């Protein structure tokens, strides 16, 4: 069976699957306040279809699956999908990216079904600010979700913090302080110009040097470290003697594309070979034809760009509201 390799020789063993485009939040950097036109249910991949796709990909070298969204935990019985994926030969790692609002009640079922890792988005520790950024979210529910996931053995948890100038940059120190006595891995993420009018993005964009500046001001000794398992795009550091680590994810200002090993599948069944590329291929047509599906994945990989230098061109498309450019909630990050 042919390996999932692109035209630059990069082997792809990791797929990010969006299980829904719906979400129970409306984060300012991700969705418009009024929500979006969500795909009708019959356009969304069923758990059986997702499983069929992975059965085709596993013999081609797919090893890691990350479930994302929209908010994956709003999809009914997500633990059942986790169980179905964990039964596929060759899949070694199943992870979830979530806002954790509904995690408290689902953590145990997910862990029991075979979930290995969890990444949680949390942009502020202050209740009023969290509510403002997410347009109505309750930070206490997220904190409960983190506790529940830790209690069932899903630690170490990665926390994703999108840094926004003048909005949450004064909390960098508090987030890093959390890593000192908890096995948490905080990753500060650069705000990405995706699915956005570029003006609002530019106003809030903050280069991640802000994080190293805060450490220097605090007089902390920072060490480079390997970081936790599944250490994807982040550069990792820790304060000497601390339990956790923190990392920087620079999708905009850095290129971690040289070692890219990721494919994406949208909730409505489109392969996206790159987060920052608008080409898409519909796999649903081939759910009953494994050879055609395998060929489609190889075709998508054949057109994968070397990196996202096209980001600027894409931004121009966004200014003219080209409908093929999806929002983060539709791609899954
Ligand atoms: N440009 C770019 N950004 C990515 C890529 N993968 C993840 N990101 C961004 O990195 C941030 C964190 O993503 P997560 O969903 O937590 O996953 P991750 O850190 O890549 O996953 P693991 O390495 O498996 O833990 C999100 O804002 C993603 O959009 C990628 O391939 N390219
Ligand atoms: C689209 S969300 C989907 C999963 C889940 N709803 C959550 O928020 O974790 C996946 C990741 O994308 C990140 N994200 C969304 N829009 C972003 C943007 N414009 N810039 C940087 N990261 C973004 C979120 O912070 C989150 O960590
Ligand atoms: S970042 Fe996640 S939680 Fe926030 S609106 Fe987007 S999909 Fe929903
Ligand atoms: S921008 Fe595209 S090529 Fe670069 S790491 Fe992300 S998905 Fe891979």
From TrEMBL:
Q: Where does [4Fe-4S] cluster 2 bind?
A: 257, 260, 274
Q: Which SUPFAM superfamilies match?
A: Radical SAM enzymes
- Reactions listed under catalytic activity: GTP + AH2 + S-adenosyl-L-methionine = (8S)-3',8-cyclo-7,8-dihydroguanosine 5'-triphosphate + 5'-deoxyadenosine + L-methionine + A + H(+)
Comment on bound cofactor: Binds 2 [4Fe-4S] clusters. Binds 1 [4Fe-4S] cluster coordinated with 3 cysteines and an exchangeable S-adenosyl-L-methionine and 1 [4Fe-4S] cluster coordinated with 3 cysteines and the GTP-derived substrate.
Q: What class of enzyme is it?
A: lyase
Keywords assigned by UniProt, alphabetized: 4Fe-4S, GTP-binding, Iron, Iron-sulfur, Lyase, Metal-binding, Molybdenum cofactor biosynthesis, Nucleotide-binding, S-adenosyl-L-methionine
Q: What SMART domains does the record tag this protein with? A: Elp3
The entry lists its GO molecular-function terms as: 4 iron, 4 sulfur cluster binding; cyclic pyranopterin monophosphate synthase activity; GTP 3',8'-cyclase activity; GTP binding; metal ion binding; S-adenosyl-L-methionine binding
Q: List positions binding [4Fe-4S] cluster 1.
A: 23, 27, 30
Q: Give binding positions for GTP.
A: 16, 66, 97, 158, 262-264
A Pfam family matched by this chain, by name? Radical_SAM
Q: Where does S-adenosyl-L-methionine bind?
A: 29, 70, 121, 192
Per its UniProt record, the required cofactor names are: [4Fe-4S] cluster
Pathway of this protein?
Answer: Cofactor biosynthesis; molybdopterin biosynthesis
Q: What sequence ranges are listed for the domain Radical SAM core?
A: 7-223
Q: What does this protein do?
A: Catalyzes the cyclization of GTP to (8S)-3',8-cyclo-7,8-dihydroguanosine 5'-triphosphate.
**How is this protein named in the record?**
GTP 3',8-cyclase
Q: What organism does this protein naturally occur in?
A: Paenibacillus amylolyticus
